[in-house]
Amino acid sequence: MLSSLRFPALRARSAFPHAAPxxxxxxxxxxxxxxxxxxxxxxxxxxxxxGQLAPRRTKxxxxxxxxxxxxxxxxxxxxxxxxxxxxxxxxxxxxxxxxMIQSCQDAIRRKIKVVKGAQLHLRVFPDLPVCxxxxxTRMGKGKGSFEYWAVRxxxxxxxxxxxxxxxxxxxxxxxxxxxxxxxxxPTEFVVAGTPPKLGGVFVDPPRSNDGPAxxxxxxxxxxxxxxxxxxxxxxxxxxxxxxxxxx
Length: 247
What we know:
9 strands, flat, 4-stranded antiparallel β-sheet, 17% strand, 8 helices, 3-stranded antiparallel β-sheet
């Protein structure tokens, strides 16, 4: 009964179920029985969403917790600006989560979007999988399940940079201040002319590559190379130079 109501061509056959359909009703019968085209199946995208800070693939699903590295060999890599004119530099080592970095990015972009051509550069990327076990869980039974992505940031490392569009220092400093309050460690505002930093001492770029002799020659000209003299000796030399300048 239901099929005769949905398909008009079958209504005529209900009185004579064993009768063959006439040639005139055959096209109508075939058109009524024609199935609708199947809807396309949407498969989940294999790539990460735009704006989601997560690596596309990793070699291992889980990783050790580890510790934030501290440069002890005199390296100043990542302590100066490379892409922008203003930046935000952390003073202590810290592990930042992807959610924290994304929140800072949103705050900075919301502030600098009024300046046409201004860009935000991210110097760190969360590629460390962090696993967490539930509270009051007994020991054993393997590592916990994946929870979020994070990144280990060494001390004095640049995290954000702003540049382009002729952005003024007041706007850039205010935008970075919005991100500064979201960090769990103290940070500082740096500009293009800020020298690299090693520990708690600013390091002037070396003027020669002659080894210790070059460092001594630079000292005579008023230049202090912390990578050659060491942090404690460099502070003493700088203090002596400042005293001589005041005298």
